[in-house]
Design brief:
By secondary structure, this protein is mostly helical. The chain has helices spanning 2-28, 38-58, 62-82, 88-110, 113-133. Helices cover 84% and strands 0% of the residues.
Length: 135
């Protein structure tokens, strides 16, 4: 008899805990702002590092710009995968940004910051267009 009461009490306590855990967050949680998709996050990361490369090339610092070009390339590789389900416009702009970023990297390796800057500005344009469409 004591075992059945103990089992019933355990089941009741477990159900009460599950109900409290399941319903309490619904009563307390405020509506959260929608989170950016992985695609948007990757594009924003690429944009941030590309903007830093632009600043470095404006200061004629090709070594720092190269580092940011590599960071941009990494974010764009991630975007290629994460943006796969997006509009074809996003994919086309990611590819355009990747190509122009690669050109910027080569120019920075050669020490031609003015040419790299032009390529980085093309990258910025493609990223802006991709972000305008990406969800």
């Amino acid at each position: 008899m004591n075992r059945s009461r103990l089992a019933a009490a355990t089941v009741t306590a477990a159900m009460a805990a599950a109900a409290a855990v399941g319903f309490a967050p619904l009563a307390v949680a405020a509506p959260a702002a929608p989170m950016a998709s992985a695609c948007v996050s990757d594009l924003q990361a690429a944009q941030t590092s590309n903007n830093a490369a632009i600043v470095a090339d404006q200061a004629n610092n090709t070594a720092t710009a190269r580092t940011y070009n590599l960071s941009t390339a990494t974010a764009l590789v991630a975007a290629m995968g994460d943006c796969a389900g997006q509009s074809p416009v996003v994919g086309a702009n990611v590819l355009t940004a990747s190509a122009s970023n690669a050109v910027a990297l080569v120019y920075n390796l050669l020490g031609a910051s003015a040419s790299a800057l032009t390529a980085e500005q093309a990258t910025a344009s493609a990223l802006t267009q991709a972000l305008a469409v990406a969800v």
